[in-house]
Amino acid sequence: MTIKKILLASSLIFASSLAVPAFSANLVCQLNVKSGGQVFGNGTSHCNGIDFSFGSSTSGSWSITNISKSIDRVHWIKGCNSGLSCGVTVRAYSSNEAQAYIHYKDGSIEYVTANMWYETGH
């Protein structure tokens, strides 16, 4: 391989690494179902759960994780009111979403979103 080809290949590899975002926080959910129920996806951005309590709601939480840069502030659109996490009431058979903009100290902004779905066996 000639030096020209090596330099070209190195340049392409370096340039492709610049296309990867320098940050990628996650908004994750934690769904708590009643005894005997099952949950799928806790710790991800899509949680689903079912139990046979025949209630109308259960508890859950939202958390922003994998933060790799200094945060200036978090602007919650849905889900929490402030901070990086909160507990919530999760309504059965309805949309339970969270959305937030993370404003970093370097001036960049990241949008994160997640959802939970809960069924009670009706």
Written account of the structure:
The protein has 122 residues and is mainly β. The chain is built from one helix and eight strands. It has one helix at 3-18; strands spanning 26-32, 38-40, 46-50, 57-65, 71-78, 85-91, 96-104, 109-119. A hairpin with a 5-residue loop joins strand 2 and strand 3 (46-50). It starts with a helix and ends with a strand.
Protein structure class: mainly beta
**Alpha-carbon distance between the two ends:** 68 Å
Described by strand count, sense and barrel closure, the largest sheet is: 5 strands, mixed
Rg over CA atoms, rounded to whole Å, is 20 Å
Low-confidence stretches: 14-21
Count of extended strands = 8
Order of helices and strands: HEEEEEEEE
| Helicity range | 10-25%
> Helix segment count?
1
Query: What's the rounded overall pLDDT mean?
Result: 86
Query: What's the arrangement of strands in the largest beta sheet?
Result: 2-3-8-7-5
Shape, per Cα inertia axes: elongated
Taken as a percent bin, the fraction of beta residues is over 45%
Signal peptide: 1-24
Keywords: Signal
Task: Summarize, please.
By secondary structure, the protein is mainly beta.
Defining key terms:
122 residues, mainly beta, 5-stranded mixed beta sheet, 3-stranded antiparallel beta sheet, 1 helix, 48% strand
